[in-house]
Amino acid sequence: MEAFRKRPLRTTGILLVAYGVASQAGSFFPMHLRGATASLTDTMHVLLTIVLVLLILLFIGFGATAAGRCFRLYSIGTILTLLVFGALAGIQGPRIRTSSAAKAT
After folding, report:
1. How many other C-beta atoms are found inside a 10 Å radius of the C-beta of residue 59?
2. Other CB atoms closer than 10 Å to residue 72's CB: what's the count?
3. What is the pLDDT of residues 42-78, one digit of tens each?
4. In the chain, what's the furthest Cα-to-Cα distance?
5. DSSP-derived secondary structure letter, 34
6. Host H or E run for residue 61
7. Rounded distance between C-alpha atoms, residue 78 and residue 62, angstroms
8. What is the span of the domain harbouring residue 51?
9. Which of 8, 27, 50, 62 could form a disulfide with 66 if both were Cys (CB 3.0 to 4.6 A apart)?
10. CB 40 within 8 A of CB 97
């Protein structure tokens, strides 16, 4: 009933449903082993992962606006943590590709 009165809660609910649907679609696009040639399913897996991360950031952000100050601060901390560790993982991406290719030869 609370969601009917607060637009951010409705938006958060819609984003959570979209996340559930998109994550189920991910089962159709498995990632292949590292070092193998890239395929359409690999590309779709990466694109779907980007969509899922954006949905996560959005529903945390909209959820944060629906609650009080403490939850808003917690949500901002969560988003910052996700962005920092996502950036660190992105930086390590080329090293993983290089090290797996070196082991294959």
Report:
1. 21
2. 15
3. 788 888 888 999 999 998 988 888 878 899 999 999 9
4. 61
5. T
6. helix 40-66
7. 13
8. 2-104
9. 8
10. no
pLDDT at 103: 58
CA distances in angstroms from 35 to 65, 96, 99, listed in the order given: 43, 9, 9
pLDDT band at 101; cut points 50, 70, 90 = low
CA atoms 61, 4, 70, 78: torsion sign: negative
Report the first-to-last Cα separation within the chain, whole angstroms.
60
Whole-structure pTM value:
0.71
Nearest-Å Rg of the Cα atoms of the chain is 18
- Residue 86: count other Cβ atoms within 10 Å of its Cβ: 12
Per the structure, the count of domains in the chain is: 1
Number of Cβ within a 10 Å radius of residue 64: 20
